[in-house]
Structures are given as C-alpha cells and as structure tokens.
Amino acid sequence: MEWKDWLSVAFTERYCLPSCSGIYVIVDANDYVWYVGQAANIKARWAGKTHHRYPQLIRSNKKRSYRIYWKELSVDLLTEKEKYYIQMFKPELNGCKVKKYLPKQPQVEREIKGLLKILNNPTYLFPVVRSVVAGGYEDNGIHCIIILINANDTRLLFQSMQKRHPPQVKNAWGLYKSYCGKNEQLYQSSSVRAYSFFNYRFEFLELPNIIFYLEENLSISERYVGIIEMLGVQLKAFKYLDIFNELPIEDEYICTNSEGKKCLTNLDYLKYRHRAIKRLQ
User: CA neighbours within 13 Å on the CB side: how many for 29?
Assistant: First the structure.
C-alpha cells in the first residue's frame, strides 16, 4: 500500500490540499482505494464541488470516512504515473461511468461474497457439505483462506473469471503457485486458483475425494464440520483440525511433465499447508 506513505487530508478538508501537480488517491477507512487521479493543481482540482466524482463520494463519506492522499510529481510524469497507480491499486471508480451513488460494496467484495454463498448452498449431489473452509494461515500480512470444493463447482470459478467484470474483479483472480517445500529442479509447481480481496486471499482447492468422503461419512461431518461467518456469509468450516487424521490425504499417483518433473497437485498443496493452518472462528 504505497499510498500510505503519502501525505493526506480528510475528504471534508479538501481545502487544505496543496497547489502542486501530482497524483491523488481516494481511500476509505478500510484502506480500500476507490479512485486514482492526476492534476496540474491538486487544490484547484478539488476546489468546491467541481470534481466529477464529488457527488458520489460526498454521499457515502460519513459512512466510509474518505481521505485524499497525494504524491507531488512534475506535470510531464502525470499520465504515465496515473496509469501505473491505476494498475497497482485497481480502484473501483476508474474506468466506470459516473453515477449519482456509489455501490454499497466494492465490486470485488460483492463478487467473492456471491461466490461463497453459492458454494455453501446445498445441492442434490452435496446436501450436507458442498464446500468447506479447511482453515487459514498468514503470508506476509495476507490472510489466506483455504477452501475445499468439489469438481463440479470449479465451473463457478471459471464463470466468475470470465464475466464482463470491471478490471479490478478480473485482476482479483490469479493462480497461486507453490512448490510445496519440494525441490524446484525435480517438481513442477502446484497451481491454486485464488481470489485476492483487500488483505485476504481465498485459495480454492478442487478435492472431490474429500468432499465425497464428508458426504458419505455423516458422523465425521457432524463431529468436525461447523458454521463460521466471514464477510457476512455463513460458511461450512472445520471445527477441529485433527480431522486431517481422518481425511483421505494419503499419497496419490504423481504424473510427470515433458521435462520429467513430478507434477504437484492440490492435494500436495493441502498436505503442505495443513500443519500450518489454523482453525477459523
């Protein structure tokens, strides 16, 4: 969050902005960047109510407590740096139409909430456990959440990736690669589909054998699977992590690629992480 090192003023104190050229960002109390802009004179750009985003921002300022951060730059660098920071911060409002109101939630938040809700709706094939949160771990200040899903629901992830979303949602999806503590010369990394949101990374592991095991062994599910709330959504999650002693996570057949390297799988990744993850409440 490079902008945290910049000077700033509260949105209601825009009159204190400097009369210099530079880049500015609008950030809410949850450290979410809503807008990136440039100005030859930042103070003049935000004078009065003339900024084209002012009507949207002022209506939600009481709830979100916006601040304007700025970085002084020469005029000849503004266009280049504005593009750079838009790509870095992926703000909600850049590139979208100016509307009277801001959305109640950033699109990146709405998308992951909707996906989590669907993954926790029972189906005919999975009436008990359709997906389950295995636990979480910290990775350089990022809260990483591991979610086990069945093979059928992988299509939901692809549908989310392929929707006509604003750029920030498409950019939220990516592949998190890991060698699972193995020798990089002998192994090809595992690739985990991940969705990054604020300081969260949701990692989705397609492990149908485990989901079917929980469906077919109701006594195990009743004992180890409970309900947690995250982002306002109720999710199935492991209550006790000693369940990993019960789950079918023994070694599988490992295929090799054209280079003769052993291909690591989602199961390898779970085995690598499960001793470090913590139960979520």
Answer: 6
| Residue 200 three-state SS | strand
CA distances from residue 182 to 43, 176, 263, 273 in whole angstroms, order as listed: 54, 16, 11, 13
Kindly give, in sequence order, each residue whose CB lies less than 8 Å from that of residue 13, ignoring residues fewer than 6 positions away: none
Following DSSP, what letter does each residue of 23-62 receive, concatenated? EEEEE-TTS-EEEEEEESSHHHHTSTT-STTHHHHHHHHH
Burial of 220 from C-beta contacts in 10 A (0-12 / 13-18 / 19+)? middle
Q: Which amino acid is at 60?
A: S
- How many of the other CB atoms lie within 10 Å of CB of 225? 19
Count CB atoms within 10 A of the CB of residue 20: 15
pLDDT recorded at residue 256: 83
pLDDT tens profile 149-189: 999 999 989 888 887 656 777 788 999 999 999 999 999 99
Separation of alpha carbons 175 and 207, rounded Å: 16
- The tokens describing 15, both together, are 């009159």
CB 33 within 8 A of CB 91: yes
**Phi, psi dihedral angles at 280 (to 5 degrees):** -95, 145
Residue 135 burial (CB count, 10 A): 20
Reading the block at residue 166, the tokens are: 């604003």
Query: How far, CA to CA in Å, does 178 sit from each of 57, 130, 261, 280?
Result: 40, 25, 14, 23
The span from the CA of 141 to the CA of 231, in Å, is 18
pTM over 0.85: no
pLDDT digits (tens, 9 = 90+) for 30-41: 888 889 999 999
Instruction: Determine the angle formed by the axes of helices 107-119 and 154-162, rounding to 10 degrees.
Output: 160
Give the integer Cα–Cα distance in Å for 219 and 25.
Answer: 52
Among 135, 129, 134, smallest CA distance to 150 is for: 129
Q: Which residues pair with 233 in a beta bridge?
A: 230
